[in-house]
Predict the structure of ATP synthase subunit b, chloroplastic.
Amino acid sequence: MKNVTDSFVSLGHWPSAGSFGLNTDILATNLINLSVVLGVLIFFGKGVLSDLLDNRKNRILNTIRNSEELRGGAVELLEKARARLRKMEIEADQFRVNGYSEIEREKWNLINSTSNILEQLENYKNETIYFEQQRAINQVRLRVFQQALQGALGTLNRCLTNELHLRTISANIGMFGAMKEITD
């Protein structure tokens, strides 16, 4: 260390101008060179380094602000998506409930409609049976009437003579005449 302090002290004892010497003490010269370089760097580089650090700081702050804005937008979008999801879940539940209600309603409508159709078919069947019974009864009546009429005509033809026939016609004409006089 003594050499280092001696180098600084020896700076004050430089020989007069005109002679130029070379200092061979490496530690002393390096220390001086380093202090000069550091001084120049600090003096001239302080602005540049400060500008670089300020730029870097501003870019970092801008990146943080942008990230915060994006995060805020993402949080807002997430909340909107959650609200929309809740709304869709509510609507889905309503559709499900309405769907089940509609299915029940349609089931009962179908059951009632089928019951009404079966009742109508039963009524049609009963009406058809009644109609067929009436038709059969009418056919039987007609047959009986035809047979009775044929029997009566046969009996009349066998029993009726011309004289009886003329008396019957005369009696009927007399009755019609009496009826005419009453109505006039």
